[in-house]
Write a structure and sequence with these properties.
With about 160 residues, the protein is an alpha+beta fold. The chain is built from three helices and ten strands. The protein is elongated and about 55 Å long.
Length: about 160
Amino acid sequence: MPNETTGEANTAGQEGRFVVTHADEASAVLKDVDRGQVHTLGENPGVEPEEVIEGCLEPEPPMGVTYRLTEVETRRRLSLEDSPEPPTQQERRLAAEQDVGEVTTRERAGTGELHVLTVPEGDTESAIGDVLEDEATLVRAARLGVDRVEIRSEPGVVSVRYLP
């Protein structure tokens, strides 16, 4: 983007962790998981949605409105799964202690987090779909440094497990 003061194109590279939110043959969109910025790549260097890339982006001249991936330190694919397993006893207990519409977040031993959502029983499948389609699920997984998001459910309870 042009500098507001000088009108010159931004030429500084940006290092960070990025989630690929959209990609096709021609371009890709990456979201910086730490800063929330969204960057459109002028060309797709072979990235796919749900990948996490640690590396460096640089603006493409002359305008600096699209970017190119100039360095890749690490690259991994996130897995999102709607598990057939029911919520654990701990997850059921947490859900029983909260009202419909509430969310409880707990750190997991080691790496990751656990989120327990209490939803109207008839909205359980819809809530699962919302979690699977929500860009924030990918961003949180990337920020936590996990590779897998597992969703367990039963009527009225949705457990989102961010796992290594």
